[in-house]
Every structure is written in structure tokens, then in C-alpha cells.
Amino acid sequence: MNGASVITAVSRALVEGFVNPGATEAYKQPAVYSDAMAVLLAFLLAVVIVSFIGLFLWNNSVVPLFEFARPAKSIFQILGLMIFLAIMLP
After folding, report:
1. Could you give the residue ranges of the DSSP H alpha helices within the chain?
2. pLDDT digit string, tens, across residues 67-84
3. The domain containing residue 32 runs over which residues?
4. Total domains in the fold of the chain
5. Considering the entire predicted model, what is its pTM?
6. pLDDT more than 90, % of the chain
7. Residue 56's closest CA among 77, 27, 85?
8. Tens digits of per-residue pLDDT, 29-52?
9. Which three-class secondary structure state does DSSP give residue 18?
10. Which residues contact 88 (CB under 8 A, 6 or more apart)?
11. Per residue in 7-39, is it b (16+ CB within 10 Å) or e — as a string?
């Protein structure tokens, strides 16, 4: 064995020990699509939860306090209100 091959073998072993300590599992590429799907589902779930909370707060807080406000009939009205406010107040 010459000096270059020893250095190469040592550096490969060092990198393998750093990337896969204990050699317990093989290195796998992370699934990009599953991460993107998880982010999309979490975002949609957050929007639905905020819309239901907004509908509840609008109908039980704003409507009794201000006589010009009418009750919201669906979460889509609250979602539209959230989008409108996001556009108007960046």
C-alpha cells in the first residue's frame, strides 16, 4: 500500500464515521416530496383551524359589540376576510 491509498482509506473511514456514526444505518436521501406534502398539509390544517376560530370570534365577539356587523355564515367568509386584510395590511 502506498501513502496515497492509505490517506484515501483513512479519509473515507473518517467521513463514514461522521456521516453514519456507529454504522447503524445506511445513508438515505431524504424524501423531498414527503416533506413538501407535510408542509402543505400543515399549512392547510392551520388555515382551517384559524378560520374556525375566526368564525367563532366574529360571531360571538364582533357581532354583539358592533351593530353594523353581521354574522358570518361560513368559514369561507372569514378566509376571504383574512386574505383581504393580508393584502391591505402587508
Report:
1. 3-19, 32-57, 63-65, 75-88
2. 999 999 999 999 999 999
3. 3-88
4. 1
5. 0.59
6. 53
7. 77
8. 666 676 777 888 899 999 999 999
9. helix
10. none
11. eeeeeeeeeeeeeeeeeeeeeeeeeeeeeeeee
